[in-house]
Design goal:
- This protein is mainly beta.
- The longest helix is centred in the first third of the chain and has 11 residues.
- The radius of gyration is 23 Å and the shape is rod-shaped.
């Protein structure tokens, strides 16, 4: 149902740690889980510290794109940062969805820093019984 388009995620993660935060032109990858639950395909993205209005979800044909931005928290003038390990900047992930998924009815929820997308499996992709017709008799060919 899902084809991964980011085979070098660990390399991207290490590069992001060395090169700094992602930008909209060079976003960092975001961790995700994908699984099937009944008649839905579920994709969950970890986006802690991201506000829902900073998340952008698009579907074009079978390409699902999720973009998010974690912005710095406004600090008072007298605050001196001692340690900053939480990454800031832009994050993005693209997933190629199978034709068997109904991209018209995707539902998105954001709770506790996790963006969860539920994508229903299309009716045409669900298993169904095919009835067998019974012939009315033999036919002969004469010539």
């Amino acid at each position: 149902m899902l084809m991964r388009t980011d085979p070098f995620r660990e390399l991207d993660r290490l590069t992001q740690q060395l090169m700094g935060p992602g930008t909209w032109s060079r976003p960092s990858a975001m961790p995700m889980d994908a699984y099937r639950e009944g008649d839905e395909y579920v994709v969950a993205f970890d986006l802690p510290g991201v506000t829902p209005d900073a998340i952008d979800i698009d579907v074009e044909r079978n390409m699902l794109t999720v973009k998010a931005e974690r912005r710095p928290v406004a600090k008072a003038d007298d605050v001196q940062m001692e340690l900053s390990e939480r990454p800031l900047g832009a994050f993005s992930r693209q997933i190629v969805l199978a034709d068997t998924l109904d991209t018209e009815r995707i539902k998105a929820d954001y709770d506790a820093g996790v963006l969860t997308l539920r994508i229903p499996i299309a009716e045409r992709a669900k298993p169904r019984k095919i009835s067998i017709g019974v012939g009315t008799g033999r036919k002969e060919i004469s010539g």
